[in-house]
């Protein structure tokens, strides 16, 4: 079942001089239930914008994004929040709420105007905290946590939200490698248990290759490749999109394609992108 | 709400003739009665060198405070006098071009017959009628340009002039003479002083004599009121403001035979509603100038049981008479006394 | 949540007890000398059944003073203190800035313009009597909010930074207008300044009775958005992802807070500091949860203003110090003390 369908999506922003800049150009794809889809591309390729369109925070200038067959705007906010959750890069500011209180906030879409739910969510909150190793920190305020710990709390908050679709916006950017793997493992375990669908914008190609079923590559607002990690993580494509040619090796254990960066290659400007058809970007 | 403005020109004219004849006789004796009646006044009026003016060189024994021993004195110049700020001001000859920055000063100057020498008045001077046609030289702080344009020999100003304005005018080499009469006696002394400065001593003494007579008439009318019969008076000259002792307005109440409920305060103060309720005044005076003030006073929470309100003795007063320490203040005094003791004062 | 409710219950209980004690204490103090015993008797006499048993042995004026002067004044202090504090908490929540206060959007200057205008022309009691100034002040206050809101709206969204900036600009402009009117005022007694500095004098029961339902409604609306304000602390985008109607929440909280503020200012003048520090003090004591901050700010604000007003009328009795001066003098050192305490516990 297609949870997310993007059809000919355009997004334009006014660039301040009376004209508009096209950030997304005719992007289309489908995400099926249970999949983990990664979106990669260099800065400015439109990844985050695309994610914002999927989450309903912004609307497309052209084309449309359908969530379970309807546009995001067609859902009342709270109803949408019951099955769609978003985890951002720097998800939680160092505020004075405790871990337990913040995670509890994830239940907001299920609460009535009095703040009550039909069933007491305490058990769910406790089990999520245990799963993420936060029980010991349950009564500590966020301002006393490290960045990695706060990101775990953010994950706890979205878990408690019990969504069907989880959108990740570069959730591992500010984390150490240990936390990065930990975060992605948590998400994968959760996904396997609950049939969660995940769409993740990732900047780390190796992580994307390890954890995603399919990957979409964006370059300057257009989708230039879509496929399994093996289809996408390959030297020529990386070179033309990112401007550096890596060495691509299969991971000894998972067999996922991993890139090794090779210093000294600056071929961006010189290289002709033979893979693409003639470009016709609107310039400025 | 009707405005019963006090006007009683007819009575004034009749008394005037009598008073003129009795002027000299009243001269030495009359001031005494006025002094006794002014209880809050702790200044010795006769023979005293105190604000608003101490005459130095020139006049023979210049004690104008006594209300004039001989009529028609001529001022000898140069004359140096001290004004309310303690500054010494020197006059080499009678000023020919006079300006006023206070409605009360304007009234005094006109009453001394100096109307044609007046070259500028403040925006609020409205009495007598001729004052309205005089060139305007600004609000109570004065407009420097207008004053310079009027080219006065002296500017008389009252207590509302703030320090900055004083400094500014002094800087511009304008001769400034400020007064701050705090009692009826000081009001009259100031009139005499002006008379001396402008060489109009005869008119000044006559004016003062009239005023003293009026004061005496009122004082006599109420002198039989026994202490326990005295009416308690509360006066609200501006919304929420009353006057304590040490000001001429409070003295008016005393002379009129009343007791100022705010007498334990000094100067111009905001009222405390609790205190007024506690004091339970018999009569309330309010300034007729403020629209709606009467209703506000009557409607004040907790005031409905005050004697003055219960007995409907809430009386407006004409601020031009009472709020100005000028020649008509004794008129205001009479109106006040009439309101307080209608059967004794006519 | 259960824990939160229990804590709220405990704190409210303590707060309300302190409030009642403050009310009684304040009613017993004043420039007229009335003994505490008499105060109690007068108050008890008003109660329906118990009251008849109290023998009347006090002078008439005393009863007038207690029931018609002091009690309404204390009640007004409760309402205004609560309104300003809750409004301040609302502003701090929606602007996510603990330095915001109810006057951030220029409402105070706006209301002052209306009041100053009437007072300048001596029309304070014209037209509709003692309601003239409050009504004028309220209208100009609301007009100011509308202008600031329009200035700050961009493409249907309300950017907080632009809103604050517009508020600052309006405040400067309107403040200048008020200064201009003050300079034109020729009275020896400058009533405009006195109004601006805030006062609870001579207000009687009418304001309290009319304001009460209005203030209660405003506070109820704000309390309804307490959870949304908690989510705002996570960030506007996060809150939106959890289902909060961000733009609507911002608008309603700002509007309700500003209406509360405009109502308060139009009746009593500009009483500063209360809306800024009371919610902040409450936050330092009970934490960032708006479900606790909002109701407790109301109670704390009421207590604070009762005492500020008592000091204002007692310190230099029978002269009254303007209330806005007292709230500032009281608030600043107390606030500094609380900040010091918090710094120490944080390090520990």
Keywords:
heterotrimer, A: alpha/beta, six-stranded mixed β-sheet, 9 helices, 26% strand, C: 348 residues, mainly alpha, two-stranded antiparallel ribbon, 14 helices, 2 strands, 74% helix
Layout: helices, strands, pairs:
The complex is a heterotrimer of chains A (284), B (346) and C (348).
Chain A: E1 2-14, E2 20-32, E3 36-40, H1 47-55, E4 62-67, E5 70-71, H2 77-81, E6 84-87, H3 99-105, H4 122-131, H5 147-160, E7 165-169, H6 177-194, E8 197-201, H7 205-211, E9 214-219, E10 222-227, H8 229-232, H9 235-242, E11 247-250, E12 257-260
Parallel strand pairs in A: 3-8, 3-9, 6-7, 7-8
Antiparallel strand pairs in A: 1-2, 1-4, 4-5, 9-10, 11-12
Chain B: H1 9-37, E1 79-82, E2 88-91, E3 98-100, H2 103-111, E4 118-121, H3 144-150, E5 154-157, H4 163-171, E6 176-178, H5 184-197, H6 201-222, E7 231-236, E8 241-243, H7 248-255, E9 258-260, E10 268-270, H8 273-279, E11 283-287, H9 293-299, H10 307-310, E12 314-317, H11 319-322, H12 329-340
Parallel strand pairs in B: 3-4, 3-5, 5-6, 7-9, 7-11, 11-12
Antiparallel strand pairs in B: 1-2, 8-10
Chain C: H1 2-28, H2 36-46, H3 60-94, H4 107-120, H5 132-152, E1 153-154, E2 157-158, H6 160-184, H7 191-196, H8 204-224, H9 226-232, H10 236-241, H11 246-268, H12 274-286, H13 290-314, H14 323-347
Antiparallel strand pairs in C: 1-2
Helix pairs in contact in C: 1-3, 1-13, 2-3, 3-8, 3-11, 3-12, 3-13, 4-5, 4-6, 4-11, 5-6, 5-11, 8-11, 12-13, 12-14, 13-14
CATH superfamily of the largest domain in chain B: Nitrogenase molybdenum iron protein domain
Q: What's the number of helices of chain C?
A: 14
Q: Provide the helix percentage of chain B.
A: 25-40%
Oligomer kind: heterotrimer
Write down the overall mean pLDDT of chain C: 85
Which percent range describes the beta-strand content of chain C?
A: under 5%
What is the β-strand count of chain B?
A: 12
User: Strand order across the biggest sheet of chain C?
Assistant: 1-2
The run of helices and strands of chain C is HHHHHEEHHHHHHHHH
Provide the structure class of chain C. mainly alpha
Topology-level CATH name of the largest domain in chain B: Rossmann fold
Radius of gyration of chain B: 20 Å
Q: What's the main sheet of chain C like?
A: 2 strands, antiparallel
Protein chains sharing the most extensive interface: B-C, 34 and 39 residues
Number of separate structural domains of chain B: 2
